[in-house]
Design goal:
With about 450 residues, the chain is mainly beta. It has 2 domains: about 220 residues, no CATH class; about 170 residues, no CATH class. It is built from 2 helices and 29 strands.
């Protein structure tokens, strides 16, 4: 496994493409000691540029290094390109220890802002779309000494730079890999780094081209992950090799993502233990297209007497039953959208938009004007309008004997109902299509 060629810094990641969000300026306790202004030289006079295609690194104005001494935070240093040094004030350092320097990718700190009492802190590297969250550490070449204001250190990587290759996916389309470690915790006393998987272990990759994306990965064993992007089917069973600190893996972790049919909604819905789908943007119309808005009724069709875009189909009776009865009772309810009554279904992963409300057991809470519904829809919600007065009737794909077929029926005046699956022959009901999410 190829390692990055380290010169004097030992840093591996590109920092100049776009600035990351900066850490909040840490606070110090002035009562703990007199402030001392120091400078840190990390490159011994030679500038090392880092690019994904070469493995070289450089800093940009405003990059920050956290400084610890004697097991706690003592200050923050800021980089200046004019003199190629980090500089800033430290407070409360003792001469019996080195100065310990932590470059944490300029990510927002997850758990508060460092202070003079801080002994640990944690950062999250999940969003890498705009920049690479480099993680590096080392201590000063010599112990801290009162009166000495200039220090040197060779910062060493605690992470790796890894290339991902794919079929053509627009650079502006975010690709997120799930199943990777994305959180770093640092103990300032022991100088130990620990890596943990949180929030599903998501990392949004940094696009260098339509077929080349890169990411900072934390040390870990070989893993099998998935990748997702808006407008594409999820890619599964992607193999990630073992990753060690300072790895530079340029051969590429390969994956392919198939474009989804046009007209899908963003929410992902489980319809069995092993299957997820996207819903079409609206009900099917007689011309084979979808309604523009979800609260429009669309056409009605006899069983299997319809045609829709390629890649779409109707859920079976068992899939409807899993979605509405087995998956999660708290993720559907009767609602009114733009004065139209119907059934509101929430996706597997759901965060309610600001200013909106939802109660699965009270239809009076689920009333949305056009603006509020736009926010709900953008968050992945699906709405099935009731085309038969107070009833909604939607075909399943499951036939019964003698040319009969099952449909699902819901009643808009009851928010706590069970779904009814009747079989009918020759009737015309609504059709809502789905396509596979992976």
């Amino acid at each position: 496994m190829k390692k990055l060629s380290l010169i004097s810094m030992g840093l591996v990641l590109l920092m100049a493409m776009t600035q990351c969000k900066k850490q909040e300026t840490p606070s110090t306790n002035d009562n703990e000691g007199e402030k001392v202004h120091i400078t840190l030289e990390v490159d011994n006079g030679s500038k090392n540029f880092v690019h994904p295609e070469t493995g070289n690194t450089f800093f940009t104005n405003g990059d920050e290094v956290l400084v610890a001494n004697n097991g706690h935070y003592v200050g923050t240093l800021t980089y200046s390109s004019s003199n190629r040094h980090f500089s800033g004030d430290i407070t409360g350092a003792v001469e019996s220890d080195y100065l310990h320097f932590y470059f944490m990718g300029n990510q927002d700190l997850v758990e508060g802002t460092p202070s003079s009492n801080t002994a640990t802190f944690t950062v999250n590297i999940s969003d890498q779309t705009n920049c690479y969250p480099q993680i590096a550490y080392n201590h000063s070449a010599a112990f801290y000494s009162e009166g000495v204001t200039s220090y040197k250190a060779q910062l060493l990587n605690k992470c790796a730079l890894v290339k991902f290759t794919s079929n053509e996916i627009p650079v502006e389309t975010a690709v997120t890999v799930s199943g990777l470690n994305n959180q770093v915790s640092v103990d300032l006393g022991s100088k130990e780094f620990s890596f943990s998987q949180t929030n599903g272990g998501n990392i949004a990759l940094h696009a260098e081209s339509a077929t080349s994306r890169w990411a900072i990965l934390l040390p870990g064993d070989a893993a099998t992950v998935t990748a997702s992007a808006t407008g594409y089917k999820k890619a599964t069973s992607i193999s990630i090799p073992p990753v060690s600190a300072n790895d530079y893996l340029t051969t590429g972790v390969s994956f392919t993502m198939q474009a989804l049919p046009e007209g899908i909604l963003s929410g992902i819905f489980s319809v069995s233990n092993t299957k997820q789908v996207y819903f079409s943007q609206g009900n099917l119309q007689s011309n084979g297209t979808f309604t523009t808005n979800q609260y429009e009724m669309g056409g009605t069709f006899t069983f299997n007497n319809y045609s829709g875009p390629n890649g779409y189909y109707i859920l079976s009776r068992d899939e409807w039953n899993y979605l509405l009865s087995i998956r999660d009772r708290g993720k559907w309810g009767i609602a009114t959208v733009n004065s139209v009554k119907g059934l509101l279904i929430l996706p597997d992963n759901w965060t309610i938009p600001e200013g909106c409300s939802f109660n699965p057991y009270s239809a009076t809470n689920n009333v949305y004007d056009v603006d509020h519904w736009a926010a709900m829809e953008n968050a992945g919600a699906v709405f099935l309008p009731a085309a038969f007065g107070n009833y909604g009737k939607y075909w399943t794909s499951t036939p019964d004997e003698d040319e009969y077929a099952y449909y699902v029926k819901f009643y808009t005046l009851s928010a706590t109902q069970s779904f009814i699956y009747d079989d009918e022959y020759g009737c015309s009901f609504s059709v809502r299509l789905v396509c596979d999410a992976e």
